[in-house]
Amino acid sequence: MSIVDPEKYRYELLAKIVDENKRLLKAIGGNCKVTMTEIGSRVRWQRTDLAELTLYIPYNTEVNGCVYEQ
Question: What CA–CA distance (Å, rounded) separates 14 from 8?
């Protein structure tokens, strides 16, 4: 099992990553800054079931600079 041209899904995956980071910021609250690294990696895929592939872009997320009001 394989996929032809996984890079064509890059912007769809990037939009999902942005949404995930927005949810992360909302969950932790405060005035935090999210920094993503290695987001420029190629789209990869992994077989996750007999007839299923999962596409992903490996990246790291760092949250810092959080200021919480009391």
Answer: 11
CA angle 14, 48, 20 (to 5 degrees): 30
- Record the tokens describing residue 12, joined without a space: 């769809």
Question: Is residue 17 exposed (0-12), middle (13-18) or buried (19+ Cβ within 10 Å)?
Answer: middle
Tokens linked to 47:
């077989």
| Structure confidence by residue, pLDDT tens digits, 18-52 | 999 999 988 888 788 889 999 999 999 999 998 89
Structure tokens at 39: 């987001």
Model confidence band, residue 13 (pLDDT cutoffs 50, 70, 90): very high
Tokens of 37: 């690294």
